[in-house]
Model the fold of this input.
Amino acid sequence: MTAIVDQVREGRGTRSRQGKLLSIVIPMHDEEPVLDVLFGRLDAVAAGFGLSIELVCVDDGSRDATLARLRERARTDSRVKVIALTRNFGKEAALTAGLEAATGDVVAPLDADLQDPPELIGEFLDLWEQGYDVVYGVRADRSSDTPAKRLTANLFYRVFNTVSDHAIPASTGDFRLMDREVVEALKRLPERNRFMKGLFAWVGFRQVGVPYTRPERAAGTSSWRYLRLMRFAIDGITSFTTVPLRIWTGIGLAAAAAAMLYALFLILQVLLYGRDVPGYASLMVVVLLGFAVQMVALGFLGEYVGRLYEEVKQRPLYLVRETIGFGAGDAP
Ligand code: UDP
Ligand code: MG
Done:
């Protein structure tokens, strides 16, 4: 609450949603089964928000009829804008495409499967009016996730926040409301590797969390597989810290110190007790350990070099095949 008082004192606490536009950005990959429920819920809550709305739907290379259904919807619903990507670029790229296309004064990314309850956006808007630039949802209860997913997620936040300079609040997703200023700041971040949670934290501004219970998927299945989540976690860590590269300096120095002590011990042993030939086992251990450490270090290096390569190529983050509802130049 002190933050709110600060805002008022600085004279920024008097935003009003009147006459403003809210963009809800929805990345979609194979979400056909959920579209009816989604639009039904949005229709039910949107009227209560008290400002105009645009729905920026990004079709991230769906293989089902998601795009066809969106096209139908856009014909009768002028709030719906559609960006169809040329293939599946992944949620982070789809979200970036949506954020770049959104024109609202406030912008809220939303999962298509209703795991982010749209009703909460009303509460987000209240806090935005009080002066917060970013209002993010915090999953108070992850009981809809499997224990394994919860455990790995906790581990990830623990590791990430230990090694990264920019802590991300645990159990936050992309679900949030952002002021236009924040969206413009995000658009200035040019990296290919878009770990959105990290980018959201990096831009700063006045942020506040709102706890909510994350429900199960309304329909359909999650597109995330474990391997993909793991790659996602590595992407997140490597794009926000170089600690994994630098720790090897420490490990190397420690190994060198240990080796020196051991050498000293050997010298003393020879001086005191005479020459000692057997030593094959200790030699093997040292050689194998040293070799393994170097391999791991090389692997870490490779993770970064690979990502450097991705960045240097400067390929676009996504390609658009078709846009609908954005006015002139739309495909029919
Ligand atoms: N999504 C996407 N591209 C992908 C994977 C997912 O646009 O390659 C969208 C998906 O349609 C949904 C949101 O990202 O709107 C979250 O995906 P999902 O529900 O599968 O993830 P989870 O809730 O399991 O983290
Ligand atoms: Mg989901």
